[in-house]
């Protein structure tokens, strides 16, 4: 049985952290909130502890984990040859939703953290609970998103509980996460830094600080081995997701066509689509409020699993700013499905 402890409760706050630190120190896993999504943590220097993450999530072994730190001083114990541009990024965006892929110092972390790669992804999360936990523990914590592998990442403690109940000892409940999409992953082992996964820190924001960055073609199979996580099914509700042009008449027409086939449809969309006649509607907030859409997206995808919808329809977003990250997740969730009427 998995325990959920609130860190917002004044009376149990300190006990929650003590318990989490005790569990992690003794090689167990603990789920905790970050500003992006909930993570499932284990001490990054223990192969046995890290293996429990893969087991609880059902995660493929060749998909490396992100290492979380509470202070920049920890970096030098497991990285080497940190480029200047990477240091500039740390100063500009840490703590925050930016993961830096850097060369790893040999034998400094458990092998299964990096899936045997010569690089490691590192970030300092910008969340009071994550930072308090890391600073009390004083050790690097490997933590992927705390969902069952293949499902949308958890943005609330209840999502972690739904996916991992009985498989992990403790969830620290710090309420809903802010950003709602995983961190930007930026690779510094290429000549020009390369975005392997778009997130809350956008290409535009990075380029203001360090000049040109490349975007890896995230759907191109040839590029896939660079961020091993990209080749797996992701963010998938039970029913298939179909992307569709962001036009009210097009969406209405699609819904009618699906109903003609005697199927039910769930619509995940911003509020200009509220009046279309889908069987289920999950809001992504007001039109053009991309931060709200990012914050609401994973819960909306999860909510579809509580319905009997046969098809999930999602009008697309422009690939600008956070829209790039939203579309990256939606394209993976849809796995190439495009609704044509
Ligand atoms: O916001 C986040 O990053 C969350 C929170 C918990 O911090 N974590 C997260 O972890 O999303 P995860 O495991 O779900 O995603 C890690 C991504 C994967 O796509 C993985 O392939 C990539 O980072 N990655 C990790 N280490 C890497 C490395 N050395 N080289 C290339 N890609 C790496
Ligand atoms: Mg994940």
What does this structure look like?
This protein is an alpha/beta fold. It is 29% helix and 18% strand. It contains 9 helices and 15 strands. It has helices at residues 13-25, 47-57, 84-93, 128-137, 157-164, 203-210, 248-260, 290-304, 323-334, and strands at 3-6, 30-32, 39-43, 66-68, 98-103, 119-123, 141-142, 170-173, 184-187, 194-197, 214-215, 241-244, 265-269, 280-283, 311-315. An 11-stranded mixed β-sheet has the order 1-8-2-3-7-4-6-5-9-10-11, sandwiched between helices. A 4-stranded parallel β-sheet has the order 12-15-13-14, sandwiched between helices. α6 links the parallel β10 (194-197) and β11. The longest helix is centred in the C-terminal third of the chain and has 15 residues, at 290-304. It is globular. The relative contact order is 0.15. The model is unreliable at 219-225 (pLDDT under 50). Bound molecules: threonylcarbamoyladenylate and magnesium ion.
Q: What tags apply to this protein structure?
A:
341 residues; alpha/beta; 11-stranded mixed sheet; 4-stranded parallel sheet; 18% strand; binds magnesium ion; ATP binding; tRNA processing; cytoplasm
Write the layout of secondary structure elements.
Elements: E1 3-6, H1 13-25, E2 30-32, E3 39-43, H2 47-57, E4 66-68, H3 84-93, E5 98-103, E6 119-123, H4 128-137, E7 141-142, H5 157-164, E8 170-173, E9 184-187, E10 194-197, H6 203-210, E11 214-215, E12 241-244, H7 248-260, E13 265-269, E14 280-283, H8 290-304, E15 311-315, H9 323-334
Helix pairs in contact: 1-4
The structure holds threonylcarbamoyladenylate and magnesium ion.
């Amino acid at each position: 049985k998995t325990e959920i402890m609130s860190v917002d409760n004044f009376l149990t706050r300190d006990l929650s952290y003590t318990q989490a630190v005790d569990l992690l120190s003794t090689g167990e896993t603990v789920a905790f909130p970050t500003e992006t999504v909930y993570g499932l943590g284990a001490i990054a220097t223990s192969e046995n502890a890290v293996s429990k993450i893969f087991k609880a999530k059902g995660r493929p072994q060749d998909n490396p984990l992100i290492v979380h730190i509470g202070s920049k001083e920890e970096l030098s114990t497991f990285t080497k040859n940190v480029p200047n541009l990477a240091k500039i990024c740390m100063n500009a965006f840490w703590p925050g939703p930016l993961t830096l892929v850097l060369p790893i110092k040999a034998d400094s972390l458990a092998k299964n953290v990096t899936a045997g790669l010569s690089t490691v992804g590192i970030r300092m999360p910008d969340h009071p609970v994550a930072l308090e936990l890391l600073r009390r523990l004083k050790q690097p914590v490997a933590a992927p998103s705390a969902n069952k592998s293949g499902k949308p990442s958890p943005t609330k403690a209840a999502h972690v509980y739904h996916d991992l109940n009985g498989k992990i000892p403790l969830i620290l409940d710090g309420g809903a996460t802010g950003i709602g999409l995983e961190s930007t992953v930026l690779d510094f082992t290429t000549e020009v830094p390369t975005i392997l996964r778009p997130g809350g820190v956008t290409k535009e924001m990075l380029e203001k600080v360090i000049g040109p960055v490349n975007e890896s073609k995230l759907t191109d199979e040839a590029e896939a081995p660079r961020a091993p996580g990209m080749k797996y099914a992701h963010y998938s509700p039970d029913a298939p997701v179909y992307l569709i042009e962001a036009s009210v008449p097009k969406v209405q027409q699609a819904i009618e066509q699906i109903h003609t086939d005697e199927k039910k449809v769930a619509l995940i969309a911003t509020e200009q689509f509220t009046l279309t006649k889908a069987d289920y509607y999950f809001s992504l907030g007001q039109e053009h409020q991309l931060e709200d859409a990012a914050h609401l997206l994973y819960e909306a995808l999860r909510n579809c699993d509580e319905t009997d919808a046969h098809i999930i329809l999602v009008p697309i977003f422009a690939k600008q700013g956070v829209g790039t990250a939203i579309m990256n997740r939606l394209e993976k969730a849809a796995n190439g499905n495009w609704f044509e009427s």
